[in-house]
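Bumping my old thread because nobody answered last time. Still need a sequence for this structure:
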């Protein structure tokens, strides 16, 4: 199931994909579902309702919205600062926010997953990284099996920092690579040589991390099929455990810095799809399983095994083989999935700090997930993780969507079976379009796990 032959997509189909729009674009627009304001009391009640079920498990997401400089393509919730005292104050507020949430939870829920992202989590100095981890351990029950992961900027990584992270318990690490071509790097304002990436990778291996992941981006200015192929070949030579390959979408609404990228230097929609197709061909040929929409994992990696066995899941943190009941987000702009709500914190850092210092849980938006939403979520997860939509999930409330999806059989994108729709090998390239048949919910669903993906 995971290694779909990419050759099944013809040039005509690639053109058709391009015609349908930027399927892999990472839109940072506020999704339509984020219309509801949510006040702290409602969120407190949602947390308190979990307290009755101590066996329910948690994932924690912690957002660190600081970077030493801004990459021109960046659509993340981050701020450029060199003010260590401000970051210390932010950590004070993280401590307070966690204390407020833990007070409502009142229980000893096991944390099965902890993920630090941003921004640049490894922009924190050693004392701050240690302090942040100690805060989390003090407020929540981190158990020996908790999966601790962190996203890192290779330009901020040192052997000493890797040793520290490993000693603190982090076992999975993701490095933002994006593209190795110097011309592309100049166009996106992010210079990092292949030698640097090799050194950092070797250090991380030597340190003993269980899984090392690289993030790549296609659709960047000055990128050509040949240059991206060279990047892919160099990455395959290193053999990281996981590789994500996201599509760049110019979203100037996220910050004027993106205007510095000349829109005329961007690949066309057809070229974008050809770039992604190169990634699929190269990585699957090198022994990586294609995971979900845009991730790849060595066949021996637990993600690939989980997909093969039908156990792959997605939550706010991304693809995972670990199933938890709730995801709690901490920090400015963090997103969570708690009880019957999906929630987002205040994005502005100072407002977020002020609300926490005022003793409030600093949520701002939320959405009460209806039964229909829950079905949509299950449907999207099945389509992305298992490449199928069982009829029983759609039955009753998603009949229209099921029927619209069935109509893609004429394009060869789905195969209609008596009890399910299966996404075909070609249809996999259209997966984003197929999922968007679930409307605004898909917008929210993809935003919740794409909020920190371009370190
Ligand atoms: S892409 Fe990553 S490192 Fe660059 S500015 Fe954005 S969050 Fe910071």
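Sorry it took so long. Here it is:
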């Amino acid at each position: 199931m995971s290694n779909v032959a990419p050759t099944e997509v013809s040039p005509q189909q690639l053109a058709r994909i391009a015609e349908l729009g930027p399927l892999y674009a990472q839109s940072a627009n506020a999704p339509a579902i984020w219309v509801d304001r949510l006040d702290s009391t409602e969120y407190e009640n949602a947390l308190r309702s979990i307290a009755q079920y101590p066996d329910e498990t948690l994932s924690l997401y912690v957002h660190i919205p600081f970077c030493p400089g801004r990459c021109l393509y960046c659509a993340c919730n981050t701020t450029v600062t060199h003010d260590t005292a401000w970051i210390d104050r932010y950590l004070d507020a993280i401590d307070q926010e966690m204390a407020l949430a833990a007070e409502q939870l009142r229980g000893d829920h096991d944390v099965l997953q902890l993920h630090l992202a941003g921004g640049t989590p490894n922009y924190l100095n050693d004392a701050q990284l240690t302090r942040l981890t100690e805060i989390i351990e003090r407020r929540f029950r981190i158990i020996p099996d908790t999966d601790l992961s962190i996203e890192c900027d290779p330009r901020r990584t040192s052997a000493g920092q890797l040793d520290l992270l490993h000693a603190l318990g982090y076992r999975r690490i993701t490095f933002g690579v994006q593209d190795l071509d110097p011309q592309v790097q100049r166009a996106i304002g992010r210079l990092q040589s292949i030698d640097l990436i090799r050194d950092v990778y070797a250090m991380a291996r030597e340190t003993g991390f269980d899984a090392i992941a690289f993030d790549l981006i296609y659709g960047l200015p000055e990128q050509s099929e040949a240059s991206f192929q060279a990047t892919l070949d160099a990455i395959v030579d290193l053999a990281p455990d996981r590789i994500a390959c996201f599509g760049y979408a110019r979203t100037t609404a996220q910050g004027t810095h993106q205007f510095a990228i000349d829109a005329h230097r961007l690949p066309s929609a057809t070229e974008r799809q050809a770039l992604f197709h190169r990634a699929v061909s190269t990585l699957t040929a090198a022994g990586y399983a294609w995971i979900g929409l845009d991730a790849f994992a060595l066949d021996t990696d637990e993600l690939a095994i989980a997909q093969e066995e039908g156990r792959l899941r997605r939550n706010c943190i991304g693809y995972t083989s670990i199933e938890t009941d709730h995801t709690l987000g901490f920090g400015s702009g963090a997103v969570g999935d708690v009880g019957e709500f999906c929630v987002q914190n205040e994005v502005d850092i100072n407002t977020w700090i002020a609300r926490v210092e005022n003793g409030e849980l600093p949520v701002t938006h939320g959405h009460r997930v209806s039964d229909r939403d829950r079905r949509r979520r299950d449907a999207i997860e099945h389509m992305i993780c298992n490449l199928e939509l069982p009829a029983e999930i759609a039955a009753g409330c998603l009949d229209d969507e099921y029927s619209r999806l069935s109509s893609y059989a004429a394009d060869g994108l789905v195969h209609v079976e008596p009890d399910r729709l299966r996404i075909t090998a070609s249809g996999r390239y259209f997966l984003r379009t197929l999922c968007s048949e679930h409307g605004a919910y898909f917008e929210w669903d993809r935003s919740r796990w794409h909020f920190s993906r371009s370190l």
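The first strand starts at residue 58 and ends at 64. Let me know if any region looks off to you.
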